[in-house]
Design a protein that fits this description.
By secondary structure, the chain is an all-alpha fold. Helix content is 56%, strand content 2%. A hairpin with a 7-residue loop joins strand 1 and strand 2 (142-143). Helix 1 (2-22) packs antiparallel against helix 2. The termini are far apart.
Length: 164
């Protein structure tokens, strides 16, 4: 029982430190955070399975067998983690080649929104409210440009052949 408590605490520490590192701006820290988070998940999956003898029919009684599903899920998760790790390492390396660092920059639109919020110029619909009248900075009521239906897709050339 004590070892399960210790392992549960280890899972909590892995999850906590993984989430904190995932929220950083450096891709190398995001990579380490993803690895810690997936290792915590793998340990949690193994803790959820039943421990016991090797699950071989005819050799081990069914009551003493371990749960093979948790082990199979962890093996699958390890392969997925390897792919994610390779992808994040490639992104960090490419960022290092292009900019000399691996930090993710702000999107120009995000910076513009932050500047407008600091000046108190943000006027628009509340995302929790949904569609409705919009009061731009000039004070006139209009429609929210993000809520307007987009233009219909262009027609295909063979539309007329179906009607004939």
């Amino acid at each position: 029982m004590t070892s399960n408590l210790v392992l549960a605490l280890v899972v909590g520490v892995l999850f906590g430190s993984g989430v904190v590192l995932l929220l950083e701006r450096s891709l190398s820290q995001v990579l380490i955070g993803a690895i810690l988070l997936t290792n915590g998940t793998n340990l949690l999956l193994l803790l959820g399975g039943r421990s016991g003898e090797a699950p071989i029919l005819g050799v081990t009684p069914e009551a003493e067998m371990s749960d093979p599903l948790a082990q199979a899920m962890v093996l699958t998760a390890i392969v997925i983690t390897l792919g994610l790790t390779a992808f994040l390492m490639a992104m960090a390396y490419r960022s290092w080649q292009l900019t000399g660092h691996d930090e993710v920059r702000d999107d120009p639109e995000d910076r513009r929104i932050v500047r407008r919020a600091e000046r108190g110029e943000l006027a628009g619909p509340d995302d929790n409210v949904g569609e409705g009248p919009w009061h731009p900075a000039g004070g006139t009521t209009g429609t929210d440009p993000e809520q307007v239906d987009p233009e219909p897709p262009p027609r295909r050339l063979d539309d007329g052949a179906d009607r004939a």
